[in-house]
Amino acid sequence: MSDMNGQRQNWGRRALKRLRANGWLLASAALAVIAAFAFANLSPFIAPLAIIALVVAVAALPRQTELAATESAISSQAGFLPQLSAENLAAAVTDPLIVFDHTATVVHANAAAVSIFGGIAAGMSLPLKFRAPEMQALIDGILAGGASSQAIDYLDKLPVERVYRVTASAIGHGTGLYVLVFKDQSEARRIDRMRADFIANASHEMRTPLASISGFIETLRGPARNDPAAREQFLQIMQNQAGRMARLIDDLLSLSRLEMKPFLRSGARVDLRNVIENVIDSLAPLAKDSGLAIERNFADGALEVPGDRDELYQVFENLLENACKYGQSGERVIVSIAPGNKGPEPGIDVTIRDFGPGIAEEHIPRVTERFYRVDVETSRSQKGTGLGLSIVKHILTRHNGRLSIESELGKGAAFTVHLPTN
Amino acid sequence: MQSLHIVSAYDEELQYLSKRIAAMGGHAERMVEQAIAALVTTDQDLARKVVGDDTVLDDGQREIDDKAILLIAKRQPMAKDLREIVGVIRISADLERVGDLAKNVAKRVSSVADGRQPTSLFRGIEALSNLALTQLKEVLDVYASRSVDTIGFVRDRDDQIDAMYTSLFRELLTYMMEDPRNITSCTHLLFCAKNIERIGDHATNIAETIYYIVTGEQMPAERPKGDKTDRIVIKADASPK
Hints:
A: elongated, B: mainly alpha
């Protein structure tokens, strides 16, 4: 309904403008009509009728000059930004910022907006990209011309959860341009969520070792009080369980640290060859203990990707550690780096292949879930916490990367990390 | 996308339709998110809200159908415009179904809440729904950007969703074998998982429609389906893990 009103108003305004633009023409035409009628001595009613007809015709017909004027208005709007170097200004703002016009079409999106939301280009319709009901209401509200500035909280859940305080405001007066500014509030929100998550996940996982420890304490104080052999054995078990709890806490903390970090691409580039060499060096003792040989199969040329070195180090450390732990029977692990062309964008594939027992098909899609274990017994004996792959997946999501797993029972498993190069 | 017609009202009408689709899409995404959140946290108020919200999508679809048919009658669209309008009708129908499926998940919240299931199951459902929601989001993003050259991801994601669903199916069967008292809630969860998997299928349908709108061709033929649950049999003596 408001659309139609707006249209009607628009039409009225345009008609007035046409009248104004053609004022001289109109006046001279009217004079000519009056003069003609005065001399021709015709009926007095025809003259006003002719003048009215003239006025209506001028008001309704768009003229070449007017079309040109609209075009120049559009180009001056586009030219407006570089002239004030507003585009540079927008680029310097680290928060995402999107300028749009009265039809909710994107006029300009700064670099932060493009890198965070992706796929925003000038000429795109804004409500098509930001579909959340509250965003739609915000955009409609500001375009309807109520308040000059409005704000809402906007939750973007995928691929990484982010919360923004979004402010929509009109730019200046009568420019017909509006701006959306996104202020990242994810951190505060993540702390809340983390607490809830920690309680949900950790309490359950901690209870098992804790129950076992307190059970043994009870036994040690009761029936096994005077049995040195049993005492030694129980203390050993208790130590293992305490160690497990410590590892669990470490992993949970590193996962929550990751979730706490703001989601920003710093632009730093990481040399994968160097990272992976370091990982292999640090895990050489473990591989040696397991009787495994680590083979390298690196491609030539630049193997750099944008990302965070420490986080990527953890990805490959977790993957290689898993390969060493669960692929013991295979006697070797192959680490290969190659340019990857499988994904939609160019990237680098790092594959870590072991020749152990492999993973059954039904478990493959789920191994990256928190605390999901293919085999509880093996995982416990290998000191796994059930969080390693979920950390890997989390880091890769932040890097726009993907993890694919190929495996066949009895033939080992291959974990391939695909990281985009730009 | 910016093709101008002689009658500018025609452009406005076409734009209005795609904006309505985006609004429906936003609602559908929100309903799925909330239905899953309600299921995982057994939040019955949220579940009731999702059930109530479904009418928004029903109304949306009806309005889009009316507007689109009126537009066809009035403007006699050709080529891309015709595809656009027919596509809008198809997409709105898919989105309306997504809403129905989310509503169905929300309806089951109270039945699942009765028998508390292991948290790992809910984590599986959550992971499955994340895949389906990502699929839906990316597809609707393509509707906005019209960059169909990247639409290949849809097939990959669909495979992942099927694999995940197959795995959950198996796990749920195992729980039911373990203890018959789990059967009620596990059956409800099984339907929830199926519904979420269907949401992924509707997202794939939408992707195919968008491909058709933009290119005028059908998306290259589909590979064989990855849903293998039709062959899952768990023997009575299989030891659950």
